[in-house]
Here is the input.
Amino acid sequence: MSCLVSLCVSLWLVALVARTSASSDEDINVLVLLPENNSYPFSIARVKPAIEYAKQGIKANGGHLSQLNFNIKYRNSECGNHALFALIDECNTRTDLILGPVCEYAAAGVIRVASHWDIPVISAGALAVAFDEKNPEYTHLTRVAPSYMKMAKTFASLFDQFSWKNAILIYDDDKEERNCYFTMEGVYVILNAEEYNIAHLTINSKEDKLDADEIVKSLHSEVIVICAHADIVREIMLAAHRWRMTNGSYIFFNIDLFNSSAYGNGSWKRGDIYDKEARAAYSVLNTVTLLRTVKPEFENFTIELRKSIQRPGVRDCKDCDNVNMFMEGFHDALLLYAIALHEAKKSGYSRKNGSEITRHMWNRTFEGIAGQVFIDTNGDREGDFSVMSMTDHEAGTYETVMNYFGINRTFQMMPGFNSDKFLLHGRSIAKAPSDHVTPDMSSCGLGVSAVTGIIVGALLGTALLMAFYFFRKNYRITIERRTNREEFNAGKHRQLREDSIRSNFSTA
Here is the structure.
């Protein structure tokens, strides 16, 4: 009889544990807003395997987080208002978490509505300056990729390290998604705040024929920073080499954060007749990109993502198996939410308390798929970046020469670092390819003699005549200079005022 009672009690306890375990599981509805178009490095086909990998990892690791059941729905956001419409379509279903959008114009409306509805938003995009100010419109946004302002601090530290004083920012603005516009906006704001003399030059390669020679002839700043498609960068560097600007008188940078083939072949080598000149030109071009860390977990992550993308039924996606920062970021986004939700629940809150969950995501450190992730008190990820330079001029190969760690604003100089490449070696005005006269560098072009004055006057007169001529020929190259930070912040800079995220969506 006692054995029978013991058996009954045992069965009852097993049933109770099973029932308790089942009741402790919690369904979390996740809405992922990303484009279906695979030309984007953050398309659904690219990012979905990373999110599913995180979901499986959370479940497999056991513990409290494994009790979360993520019901994930993927919706096409495109890169505009379609993302907001997709969110509104889901209003009859309780959405607990939004992942994405990435594109600035798509993200702005979604984050505003989600913040009003008390839904946390985590994105590896929305990197523009406007999203740095979370109150009152973007209160529920957490960014798991370094913003453009974080990247721009790399340049501020470089300017301080090497005592540069001025720069010109050249960017291709397509007037649509405007990735390079928003990238350079961050650099402009940071360097302008440090009181460096910053100019910028806008091109629109979709509407206007690129005249690289005309661009480089107008360059007089010490540091030249370029953000454009790789083909445009190559044309500008070839022109700079023709005009003898690659002799150490100027410092050239290219910004390529996403490490993605979707932005073009970044190599100088194209198999054409200009390869030799391009290799020489690129010997002075430095590239700023995200620091890539390697650990065993990341290697396995990469292998599994490639397997997922190669499975039958997966839509054809060129280069989708190249892991980029968006894949990493959205993987870490789901993990971050799970950690924050667990902590919020311990404090007596539930998945419905979006603001509290968001608060638990900010000002914390956790282990992401590629290493430690630092989220600051404003809900933005601290960024680590690398500077790459050509170290073998014969082979034309690049390697990382400096790493920049955003959390403490320090540099790590790598074995290939050569300080001489970052020092200015006298200044000279760009010379036409047919001009073989060697400029007098004894006074770095800053002499005050009468002869120098006559030469400078002649050059200025020639420049004005050429500007008038090319204006008549419909070359629309615009250089706008601003050195007053208050004018910029007050919105007196017409282009940045009219094109800012906040003003474009203020009446949404």
In short: Residues 220 and 429 are 7 Å apart (CA to CA).
